[in-house]
Design goal:
single chain, mainly beta, about 0% helix, globular
C-alpha cells in the first residue's frame, strides 16, 4: 500500500504556471502507475494524466491538457509531478494524486485507481 500527499496548488492568473507534487510513502513506489485527476465544483471527478510504473516511459493525457501539462516521476524521491502551463479558468479544480499497481494506458475512471491523496486546490483567475 501507499500513502499520497499532494502539494503545490494555489491561485494563479490565466496563462500562468504551477507545478503540483505528489509525495508517496512506501517501499514499492517504483511498481505503481500514477495518475492525476481533478474535480471542479458540481462536476464529476475526471482523468487528467497518468504515467506508467518504473521508468514512466508511457504517459496518457486528456485532450484538454495536451501540450500544456506534463506528468513525470522521480522514483529516487518517491515523487510524481504535474507541470501545468498556460493555465485556463476551466482548469480550476481540486487536483488529486492517485496510484495503482496496474498500468492503464487510457483515460481511466476514478474507480480504477486504488490509492488517493487528499487533493490540492488550483484556482485560475482572469
Amino acid at each position: 500500500q501507499v500513502q499520497l500527499v499532494e502539494s503545490g496548488g494555489g491561485l494563479v492568473q490565466a496563462g500562468g504556471s504551477l507545478r503540483l507534487t505528489c509525495a508517496a510513502s512506501g517501499r514499492t513506489f517504483n511498481r505503481y502507475a500514477m495518475a492525476w485527476f481533478r474535480q471542479a465544483p458540481g462536476k464529476e471527478r475526471e482523468f487528467v494524466a497518468a504515467i506508467s510504473w518504473y521508468s514512466g516511459e508511457s504517459t496518457v493525457y486528456t485532450d484538454s491538457v495536451k501540450g500544456r501539462f506534463t506528468i513525470s516521476r522521480d522514483n529516487a524521491k518517491n515523487t510524481v509531478f504535474l507541470q501545468m502551463e498556460g493555465l485556463k479558468t476551466e482548469d480550476t479544480a481540486v487536483y488529486y494524486c492517485a496510484a495503482d499497481m496496474t498500468w492503464r494506458p487510457y483515460r481511466a475512471a476514478p474507480t480504477e485507481y486504488s490509492y488517493w491523496g487528499q487533493g490540492t486546490q488550483v484556482t485560475v483567475s482572469t
